[in-house]
Design a protein that fits this description.
The complex is a heterotrimer of chains A (323), B (256) and C (397).
Chain A: E1 5-8, E2 11-12, E3 15-16, H1 18-33, E4 38-44, H2 47-50, E5 59-64, H3 73-86, E6 91-95, H4 100-110, E7 115-123, E8 130-135, E9 140-145, E10 151-155, H5 162-165, E11 173-175, E12 187-193, E13 207-211, H6 221-231, E14 234-237, H7 239-243, E15 264-268, H8 274-280, E16 286-289, E17 303-305, H9 309-321
Parallel strand pairs in A: 1-4, 1-6, 4-5, 5-11, 6-10, 7-10, 13-14, 13-15, 15-16, 16-17
Antiparallel strand pairs in A: 2-3, 7-8, 8-9
Chain B: E1 3-7, E2 9-11, E3 33-35, H1 37-53, E4 57-62, H2 68-77, E5 81-86, H3 96-106, E6 114-118, H4 129-137, E7 141-151, E8 154-160, E9 166-172, E10 175-179, H5 191-200, E11 204-207, E12 221-223, E13 232-233, H6 238-251
Parallel strand pairs in B: 1-4, 1-6, 4-5, 5-11, 6-10, 7-10
Antiparallel strand pairs in B: 2-3, 7-8, 8-9
Helix pairs in contact in B: 2-5, 3-4
Chain C: H1 6-16, H2 31-35, H3 46-54, H4 58-63, H5 75-79, H6 86-100, H7 106-118, H8 143-146, E1 150-155, H9 158-162, H10 164-179, E2 184-185, H11 196-200, H12 204-218, E3 223-228, H13 231-239, E4 250-252, H14 253-259, H15 261-267, E5 275-278, H16 294-302, E6 307-309, H17 331-338, H18 342-352, E7 357-360, H19 365-375, E8 383-386, H20 387-395
Helix pairs in contact in C: 1-6, 10-20, 14-16, 18-19
The chains are: A alpha/beta (323), B alpha/beta (256), C alpha/beta (397).
Chain lengths: 323, 256, 397
């Protein structure tokens, strides 16, 4: 993989993460633009099954060992650093996640390589390939060259479609020997803890389908829940909905509830009064559905539509489900 | 359980961020700086560990200007020692890599079991301070930690993954932890206590060591994303809107 | 040092105000608890709190968090037969103890933290404190740029500066002052929260910090008097700022405008044929016996067409909007505990009195009562306006 673009694959509980496909999409385009190949570095156990959807890569390098079945920051860091030391890619991509960032920084420091975090997109029009990162809570775009001869990046979602990087085909696999001593690792994975069966923490959800007075009554909450489920999110609400008892207080967004910064905040029938706005205006992408074109929420939502909430929700659920 | 908490100051996003037309980078004259929110959580976790297991808490920050209040607040909350690293040009900003190098040198004389810092900060560009520091020090690192428990010679941390899943991970100490959230929200300390700390407490000053930092990434320009003043309205029937929204969300990678 | 016993605490209460020792005379009559708007939901409403302290149940008192339901409305203090300074002495001091002990609802912590860092409870950029003037149809001089003495320094306050609804009140006030030819200026970005509500939430240290910043700014400029649209600022500057070395005449905007009632009458253009009821703000009326009750009413009655009606709880018996004592930043908490809102109670009273308009005179009240109009399903039946907004409506297009 020397001189190539390499995606460090992320897996969680036996599945390749969505972000990995985004990275493969990014990596494919960058590799093509640089006239080089796209490699994937897969660490896990067993690797063969995990490689089945990595067809976007030209070759997958596997490091397969029982001790590497679950993510272990120290062990994975040692493996990646050891692999790269022998065959250093032009650009190595890590996910901007609890897994990717744990190891990217350590690898960058160990191999004394430049690292750019929070990257969204890359380009290679001119002489040097460039990165574009979104920092400071989404308020600043930072751009610069991807330094030669080698550099690392962490990649956030949103710049490329995951579908573009998801190819159900096992590419050529090359097994690498476990290059590092794993017994001297001082970190040990013990167990996963399932999220509690009780209510969710809306502040940790990437997608919130939020309902306001416009949902009109408790029975309509179910349709919002169906939409949320289809999108992979949960339902939250503004104060009037919670006050009526249609949703528990754990779902309240706003001054008296939770501050949330999800990737998507879908505001259904919410006017956007300051007390609510305070809880959600930093969301990455805000979609507002409110019949009142003058509703304050349109002042800070990114996209909106002045249609009937009760009609839109089932229609949108259908479109979301139809892949 | 002696611990060290590393704090860095970052732009306060309440203020508008402006780009300096000359340098093409963030205009620092307009910036208001504040302690990184996750570093506040790291301090809270350290204080909770002190309450549970005893030991001391030392807080260290690099003097980017106006850091004293935050340090005295840490004292009022229960920190045993607070240290300010002074040096030329820090008010112009310090990269994560530089911070990792500086902290590495400063920590040479401070043995401790745990080093805690916020797992990331809003202005991170060339890495995460804690993770790079750990590597420089040859210590194990776990990031996105939301809980720490001590056991002889090791700690058991709760690490957070996307989607609410967490895992228990055992790490031998000394270790560096990147804190995502303390077990409790950072405590409030009454203003009168902070005033008291300002009168009776003291801040240790250490001169910044000479550090060598390898080349990091360069930023050739910064810009502010274009945002319309109001939402882009989708027109059409309910079906049109539903289709357009679904397409939009797929394009953005928000839904599959 | 944290307080360890009831006696230590009572000592602090006694020292908190000049007549603090009156607490020893408590008859346990229960009038305070009876009139308290949230007494029904408290573990220790005032009478019971004093009883607990006398029984040395300090830990029992500290274990409860219902003190945060107290909205520092002064109702208890105003009816106490032996004149114990309950609000300022007992309740505010207990809140301080709770803060020192680390017991504070998260919502309140955010507001206090914002006040510390940004000089306003809303967490807005201090640089933008005068941005509301940009949309204003008349010029609003900011003293730092104005460079000339003015007759009046208008202290706008946090909500008047930053909250979209209350900015409309500020705009109306600016237009009225301009039409009257008053020479005035505002502090703009140099202004900080008056600190009054933060003080009554237990944070006297924070109050002093904010007050000193305001005093430092105000002493730079030449003016004859201070007027404010915010009764909390009025209360703080009248009663607390003097002990910090700043003692200048301060009046509420309704008092100032009443002085000019003849000029105002000459400027009324549009009659307002409506039944209006006036809500007495706690900090204009009961608090510290400020007793400003008639001036706002006289202003309203001067507007042609206005018919003034009274709610059953008026003047000294007025029911608090729930914003004081930190209440402005504890709505989630108080709903959880009490499942009742004083604002809703008040809105129902206004409607029962036959009012079409609920007139107010405090920056907290316009958003709070408008919210209650919605949550009680009375949209379209009752409108909430500050007194100065009604004056403006009568004067301008």
């Amino acid at each position: 993989m020397t001189g190539q673009v390499c995606v460090v694959v992320e897996t969680l509980r036996g599945e390749v993460t969505e972000l990995t496909y985004t990275m493969l999409a990014a990596g494919r385009r960058l590799a093509d633009a640089l006239h080089t190949k796209l490699a994937a570095l897969l660490i896990g156990h067993p690797c063969a099954k995990l490689a089945e959807t990595l067809g976007a890569a030209d070759r997958v390098f596997c490091v397969d060992h029982a001790d590497l079945a679950e993510f272990n920051p120290e062990a994975y860091l040692r493996v990646v650093a050891a692999v790269f030391e022998k065959q250093m890619p032009r650009v190595a991509m890590f996910g901007h996640t609890a897994m990717g960032t744990d190891i990217a920084c350590g690898v960058a420091q160990r191999l004394k390589l430049p690292l750019a975090v929070s990257c969204r997109t890359f380009s290679a029009d001119g002489a040097e390939p460039q990165y574009s990162a979104l920092i400071c809570g989404g308020k600043i775009i930072a751009e610069g060259p991807l330094p030669a001869p080698h550099c690392l990046v962490t990649v956030m979602s949103g710049g490329y479609k995951a579908d573009e990087g998801r190819v159900r085909k096992t590419p050529p696999l090359e097994t690498l020997p476990v290059p590092a001593r794993l017994d001297a690792v001082r970190t040990r994975f013990k167990q996963y803890i399932e999220p509690p069966a009780g209510d969710v923490d809306i502040a940790k959800q990437p997608i919130l389908v939020s309902v306001g007075r416009g949902i009109q009554n408790k029975d309509n909450i179910a349709m919002a829940e169906a939409l949320a489920k289809a999108m992979g999110g949960v339902v939250s609400g503004s104060r009037p909905v919670i006050d009526q008892g249609w949703l528990p207080t754990t779902r309240l967004v706003g001054k008296s509830g939770k501050q949330v910064k999800p990737k998507l905040y879908l505001a259904l029938g919410i006017s956007g009064a300051p007390e609510h706005a305070e809880g959600m205006r930093d969301a990455e992408f805000i979609v507002a559905i409110n019949r009142d074109e003058k509703a304050p929420i349109y002042g800070f939502a990114h996209v909106g539509a002045a249609v009937d909430v009760l009609e839109l929700v089932p229609a949108l659920t259908e479109k979301v489900k139809a892949r | 359980m002696d611990s060290v908490v590393l704090i860095k100051f970052v732009p306060d996003l309440v203020e508008d961020l402006e780009i300096d037309p000359q340098s093409g980078l963030l205009d620092r004259s307009f910036l208001r700086l504040m302690p990184n929110e996750l570093d506040d959580h790291a301090l809270e976790e350290a204080l909770l560990l002190k309450e549970r297991y005893g030991g001391t808490v030392t807080v260290i920050t690099v003097d980017t200007g106006d850091v004293d209040e935050a340090l005295y607040t840490a004292v009022a909350k229960g920190a045993d020692r607070v240290v300010k690293v002074t040096g030329e040009g820090f008010d112009q900003g310090v990269t994560d890599r530089e911070l990792a190098s500086i902290f590495h040198e400063v920590l040479r004389g401070m043995p401790c079991e745990l080093i805690l810092t916020g797992t990331q900060a809003v202005d991170d560009l060339d890495g995460f301070v804690g993770a790079m520091l750990a590597e420089r020090m040859g210590l194990p690192y776990v990031g996105y930690v939301t809980k720490v428990e001590s056991q002889d010679g090791t700690v058991i941390v709760r690490k957070e993954y996307p989607g609410g899943l967490t895992a228990e991970i055992e790490v031998a100490t000394p270790a560096v932890l990147g804190i995502q959230a303390a077990e409790k929200p950072p405590r409030y300390v009454v203003t009168s206590k902070v005033m008291e700390a300002m009168k009776s407490g003291s801040i240790d000053e250490v001169e910044a060591p000479d550090v060598s930092v390898e080349d990091g990434v360069t930023v050739s320009r910064m810009s502010v994303p274009e945002t319309g003043a109001r939402a882009e309205m989708i027109k059409g029937s309910v079906q049109d809107v539903a289709a357009a929204l679904a397409r939009l969300l797929r394009d953005r990678g928000v839904i599959a | 040092m944290s307080t360890a016993s009831s006696y230590e605490f009572l000592d602090k209460v006694i020292k908190a105000t000049p007549d603090g020792a009156y607490i020893r005379k408590c008859l346990q009559c229960g009038t305070c608890s009876g009139i308290c708007p949230y007494g029904f939901a408290m573990d220790h409403p005032p009478r019971s709190l004093i009883a607990a302290l006398r029984a040395d149940d300090w830990h029992g008192v500290l274990e409860s968090d219902t003190i945060w339901l107290c909205v520092s409305c002064f109702a208890c203090a105003s009816v106490c037969p032996v004149r114990i300074p309950l609000t300022r002495g007992l309740l505010a001091t207990l809140k301080t103890e709770m803060l020192v002990g680390g017991s504070i609802p998260q919502e309140l912590q955010t507001a206090l933290g914002n006040s510390r860092r940004y000089g306003n409870a809303l967490g807005e950029s201090p640089r933008k404190r005068a941005d509301w003037t940009k949309d204003c149809p008349v010029p609003v001089p900011v003293l730092a740029n104005h460079k000339e003495p003015v007759d009046v320094l208008w202290f706008v306050g946090d909500y008047g500066s930053y909250h979209p609804r209350v900015q409309l009140v500020s705009r109306a006030m600016a237009r009225v002052l301009h039409a009257l030819g008053v020479s005035f200026g505002i502090l703009g970005p140099e202004e900080n929260s008056d600190g009054d509500t933060q003080a009554f939430a237990g944070e006297w240290g924070l109050f002093e910090l904010l007050a000193r910043k305001n005093i430092k700014a105000m002493t730079k400029y030449a003016f004859d008097e201070i007027i404010t649209t915010d009764p909390h600022a009025y209360n703080a500057m009248k009663h607390e700022y003097p002990r910090l070395g700043f003692d200048r005449p301060v009046r509420h905007h309704t008092q100032f405008l009443l002085d000019r009632i003849e000029s105002l009458k000459g400027l009324f253009r549009n009659p307002l044929p409506m039944r209006v009821t006036y809500h007495d703000p706690c900090y204009l009326g009961r608090a510290n016996e400020n007793n400003i009750y008639e001036e706002p009413r006289q202003l309203l009655q001067a507007i042609p067409g206005v018919e003034l009606v009274e709610m059953s709880h008026n003047r000294a018996l007025s029911i608090c909007c729930g914003g004081g004592g930190g209440g402005m930043w504890l709505d989630g908490f108080s709903w959880e505990k009490a499942h009742a809102r004083t604002t809703e109670w008040r809105v129902k009273e206004a409607i029962a009195a036959g009012a079409q308009v609920l007139a107010v005179a405090c920056s907290y009240e316009t958003p709070r009562f408008e919210d209650a109009v919605k949550s009680t399903g009375n949209e379209g039946k009752l409108v909430v306006k500050d007194v100065v907004e009604l004056l403006a409506e009568a004067m301008f297009e």
